[in-house]
């Protein structure tokens, strides 16, 4: 078969650039096709946290951890509804991927390690340099290799001959290769894709947006192209929903402030308000009408909301301070915050059960006085009683997309599978485009970049091998 390149990579984000680096390192001639005007994708916007266990960074801080322990945690969190083979890759290759990034200039300060999921071992590795720093490291490593790249080149479809993917169509041309790696990222910026593949997120209507908005081609092209050539699409209606206060504009605000009392339509609390975003969005979405209300009073607004340190535990400098004092005052002026002189009146404005809300607030206040949270065990210093009018409420929904996880099914060599579990020859995929990489719950902040780097590198190695055969 005539070919222009051994390996074509569709999408020059984190997974794509890692795939290209590895494929070239394995001796393949490589072409990267990127729809945007520059490479980097959502990876270049990301918070730069990497989730991994048993790493050199953990060891430097004296933390005992293993890939097996991570595997057990993620499997149990997902009630074993997670591909064991894929999870094994994410666990086993984490330490090596962290060292690879460090080798290319990334820095993961051991003192910044944190529990970014609901596990008890710090596996979230924030990177120095804040937002985009891991992406910048990958882009630098890629650019140093002089790999052929065409930007502003959106791939339209895959070319299939005799059941084998042999190339791509883009910009009116055909390019042929021994293997194609699809790394087009998620589909959070496509309303149509959301309605089809993540309807419970589309439910939130106009409030929905993806944190990927700066990466305009996160539109699900890879999912569509995979489907066109018969790929099995898995992970329907899953992803990472993040809490949102409905503040005007698109903002990243995954951490709720500790000083609110979050209640559902029944007027009841339903979680520790400080629980990590890896689970909070799912809990909010399982409440009646998939919504909740943050309740607080005037003294809390005046004092507690001034401290916004809770909003950026990753040192990412990404998180918006939508719950800070001035923003809320401005929103009150614009009529975007529910305000009432009594809890009963507030409940009626919200359409929340007034008796229950009254009991919730009474119990919460009594717990604040006693220095405990009898129901949800929130830390004492993070609780503020709700006593003095005016009383306020802001509607909270889990309507922001952190990542999408519906897409083509792959095997442990990143080969795309069809509906009969057969490999589609010549086709590989990695990164956010791949389906069912996260299970029902997000293991912890950093798993998406881990997925892009680890599966991207493996896909590149395997594609180069396949192209050489
Ligand atoms: C603001 C923000 C913060 C985040 N923070 C974190 C974090 O701290 N930790 C973490 O783990 N995850 C985080 N994530 C998620 C994580 O960054 C992504 O899941 C991950 O980087 C996706 O990598 P990828 O390579 O699969 O896709 P991307 O990096 O998005 O790359 C996909 C590329 O494909 C291109 N493309 C799409 N369609 C085509 C086509 N038809 N032809 C050619 N090119 C195409 C796109 O333009 C894009 O460049 C964050 C995301 C955002 C946006």
TrEMBL record:
An individual GO BP term: steroid metabolic process
The protein's name: Fumarate reductase flavoprotein subunit
Keyword Disulfide bond among record annotations: no
SUPFAM superfamilies: FAD/NAD(P)-binding domain, Succinate dehydrogenase/fumarate reductase flavoprotein, catalytic domain
Pfam families in alphabetical order: FAD_binding_2
InterPro entries linked to this entry: FAD-dep_OxRdtase_2_FAD-bd, FAD-oxidoreductase_2, FAD/NAD-bd_sf, Succ_DH/fumarate_Rdtase_cat_sf
PANTHER family: 3-OXOSTEROID 1-DEHYDROGENASE, FUMARATE REDUCTASE
GO molecular function: oxidoreductase activity
Ranges for domain FAD-dependent oxidoreductase 2 FAD-binding: 6-448
UniProt keyword annotations, A-Z: FAD, Flavoprotein, Oxidoreductase
């Amino acid at each position: 078969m005539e070919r222009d390149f051994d390996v074509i990579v569709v999408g020059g984000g984190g997974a794509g650039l890692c795939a290209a680096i590895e494929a070239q390192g394995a001796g393949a001639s490589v072409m990267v096709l990127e729809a945007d005007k520059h490479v980097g994708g959502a990876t270049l916007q990301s918070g730069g946290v990497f989730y991994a266990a048993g790493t050199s960074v953990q060891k430097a801080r004296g933390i005992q951890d293993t890939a097996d322990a991570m595997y057990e945690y993620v499997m149990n969190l997902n009630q074993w509804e997670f591909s064991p083979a894929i999870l094994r890759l994410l666990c086993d290759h984490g330490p090596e991927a962290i060292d690879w990034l460090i080798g290319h200039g990334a820095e993961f300060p051991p003192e910044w390690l944190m529990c970014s999921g609901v596990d008890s071992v710090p596996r979230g590795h924030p990177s120095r340099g804040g937002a985009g720093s891991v992406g910048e490291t990958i882009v630098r490593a890629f650019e140093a290799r002089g790999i052929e790249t065409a930007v502003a080149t959106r791939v339209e479809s895959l070319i299939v001959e005799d059941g084998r993917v042999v190339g791509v169509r883009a910009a009116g041309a055909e390019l042929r290769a021994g293997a194609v790696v699809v790394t087009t990222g998620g589909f959070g910026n496509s309303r149509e894709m959301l309605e089809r593949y993540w309807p419970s997120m589309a439910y939130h209507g106009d409030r929905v947006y993806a944190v990927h908005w700066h990466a305009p081609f996160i539109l699900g092209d890879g999912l569509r192209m995979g489907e066109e050539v018969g790929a099995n699409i898995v992970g329907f209606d899953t992803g990472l929903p993040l809490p949102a206060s409905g503040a005007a504009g698109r903002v990243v605000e995954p951490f709720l402030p500790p000083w609110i009392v979050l209640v559902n339509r029944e007027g009841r609390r339903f979680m520790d308000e400080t629980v990590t975003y890896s689970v909070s969005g799912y809990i909010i979405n399982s409440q009646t009408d998939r919504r909740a209300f943050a309740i607080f009073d005037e003294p809390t607004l005046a004092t507690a909301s001034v401290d916004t340190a809770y909003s950026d535990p990753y040192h990412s400098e990404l998180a918006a301070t939508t719950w800070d004092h001035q923003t809320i005052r401005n929103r009150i002026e614009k009529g975007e915050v529910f305000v009432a002189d009594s809890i009963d009146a507030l409940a009626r404005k919200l359409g929340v059960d007034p008796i229950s809300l009254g009991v919730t607030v009474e119990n919460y206040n009594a717990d604040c006085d006693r220095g405990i949270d009898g129901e949800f065990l929130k830390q004492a210093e993070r609780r503020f009683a709700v006593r003095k009018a005016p009383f306020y409420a802001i509607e909270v929904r889990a309507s922001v997309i952190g990542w999408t996880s519906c897409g083509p099914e792959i095997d442990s060599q990143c080969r795309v599978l069809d509906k009969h579990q057969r490999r589609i020859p010549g086709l590989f995929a990695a990164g956010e485009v791949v389906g069912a990489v996260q299970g029902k719950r997000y293991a912890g902040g950093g798993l998406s970049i881990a997925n892009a780097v680890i599966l991207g590198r493996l896909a590149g190695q395997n594609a180069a091998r396949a192209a050489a055969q």
